[in-house]
Each structure stands twice: as structure tokens, then as C-alpha cells.
Amino acid sequence: MATPLILTHGGAGAPDEWSDGCQVAAAAASAVLKAGDPLAAVVTAARILEDDERFNAGTGSRLRLDGSCQMDASVMDSEGRYGAVAAIHGLRHPIDAARLVLDSPHSILAGSGATEFARAKGLPPESCVTAAALSKLAKSQAALRSGELRPTDGAWQQGMEEFKGTIGAVARSADGRFAVSCSTGGTSLMLPGRVGDSPIIGAGVFCGPLGAICCTGHGEQILARLVAHRVYLALEAGAALAEVCQAEIDAFPADFSLGIIALSKDQDWAGATGSMARSRDPDA
Ligand code: ASP
């Protein structure tokens, strides 16, 4: 028997004070996990975090530079089942669409095809745009218009100050199964159609019989390093979870953020290059 456990995060760079939202999500997911389904547990956590407007996922997502709201989300379980949506728009819970893709013949649906799929499955049109997101967008657009910020600047790459709030969860059930969920509005300075690491298997998420890994931070750098899969491969090679996660954090390129939450059969780990709102349930 394994010890059931759920970890949630509110994004690399998200202040510790936002951890109360992560705790609400973890506690609700923990109740679901008691019934034995880690996949249902991580979806429950993600839905709650998507509804918390402080976080950059679902309602409260960052907007693209053209003002559109396009979101990425994914789920995976230790049986190797995986579903994701990329640049989906016009729905409150992208994680629900990702969960439905998991049961479909496909692995990833993107753009308007993803949105049409969600509608066909009965997910209603809803706006995720908040006043705070509009004001952040206006700030970014003004900086671009004035020439203060250029696409080649480091500040563009790092998303100015607004780059935080992606959400994720990992769960381990008593019978030793795992699941991971992840959902994001992306970064602040995004072209329409940009897809980050969050919906990409092996980059932002990975899960197998040995554990579950969820990453947050600078999507392009996480994609280039396939962080989640590298952690999993190290577990397969017999490494200790804490050591391998810390090694990924330490080796991440300077000036870019990375956060990881991860579970193995008997360990759990959460850490980041800077702050990262997070929670663990049950708390040790
Ligand atoms: N990794 C996400 C992305 O690049 C952002 C984040 O985790 O904060 O879309």
C-alpha cells in the first residue's frame, strides 16, 4: 500500500500568500483521492484553481497580444493515458476539455478544433477574461508601442513582471497509481497560437508507474529541456526524487523560472527557482 497524497501549485513566481488557494484545491482533491481515483483528484484540483482568479489558468488567464484568451491544459495518468488541449478558447475549465481528449482517439487538440471538440462534448461557451488580465495586457501593449519593450529583449522572454500563476497537481493513490494535471493561460507576452510546455507530454507533465511530475515556469526553456520526462527517466534509473528535481532547478538557465511538484512511490517534492505558491494534502 502507498500513502495517498496530493500536491498542488499556483505557478513559478506566484507569491507564497496565494498558497491558501492551492490548499483549498488540495483538500478538495484529497477527498476525491480517498475514493481511489488519482485522475479524478487532479482534475478536481485543477478545476478549483482555474476558478481562482489570482491564478493564470481558466478565469484570470493571461491574454494574447491581440487580446484573445487562449489556454493550454493537460492530464496524464500512470496507465499512460494522456489528453491535452492547446490554445483553446472560450471555456471556463480547459482541464475538462483535456480530460475529454484523454478518452478520445487523439492525444492533443489545438486551437479552434479543440474549442469545437469541447462544444461538441457539451462544455458551454464562457469568457475567462478578467479586468485584471485586461489591465495587464494594456500595460504590455503600451510598453511595446512605446518601444520600451522589444521582442528581442530579455524582459519579453521573461514575461515582464506578470509571468506567474499557472496551476498544476500531482496525486498518488493508496494502490500506488499516479496522475498529473496542468492548466495555464501561458505567459504575458504571447502571440496568438503560442503553445507552451503545459500541454506537452514530457515537457510540462509526465506520469508513469514510478511517479508523476508537473512543471511550471518559462515554457520555451522547459520544452527545450523536456524537464518532466528527464525527472521521470532519472527515477527509472534509481535516483532519489529530491535530488533529481533539485538538479533540474539548479541546472535551469539563469534568469528563467522553473517550479516542479513531483511524487514517486514513497517521496514527494516541491520547489522552484524562486517563489511558488503550493500545498500538500495531507500536510505532514
Ligand atoms: N509554463 C507556462 C507556459 O509557458 C507558464 C507558467 O508555468 O507559468 O505557458
Provide a descriptive summary of the structure in words.
The chain is built from 9 helices and 11 strands. It starts with a strand and ends with a strand. Strand 9 (258-264) and strand 10 form a beta hairpin. The protein is of the alpha+beta class and 284 residues long. The strands form 2 sheets. A 7-stranded mixed sheet has the order 4-3-2-6-5-1-11. The chain has a 4-stranded antiparallel sheet with strand order 7-8-9-10. 53% of the residues are buried. Helix 2 (38-51) runs antiparallel to helix 3 and helix 8 packs antiparallel against helix 9. The longest helix has 16 residues, at 19-34. Bound molecules: aspartic acid (ASP). Aspartic acid binds next to strand 1, strand 8 and helix 7.
Provide the descriptors you would attach to this structure in a database record:
four-stranded antiparallel beta sheet, 284 residues, 9 helices, 11 strands, seven-stranded mixed beta sheet, binds aspartic acid, 34% helix, single chain, alpha+beta
Contiguous uncertain segments of 5+ residues: none
| Count of helical regions | 9
- Look at the structure and give the mean pLDDT: 94
Rg, please?
A: 17 Å
Bound small molecules, by name, code or SMILES, are: aspartic acid
Helix and strand string, N-terminal first? EHHEEHEHHHEEEEHHHEEE
Give the fraction of residues assigned to helices.
25-40%
What's the arrangement of strands in the largest beta sheet?
A: 4-3-2-6-5-1-11
Alpha-beta classification: alpha+beta
N-C termini distance: 18 Å
User: Describe the biggest sheet?
Assistant: 7 strands, mixed
Strand content: 15-25%
Shape: globular
Q: Please give the number of β-strands.
A: 11
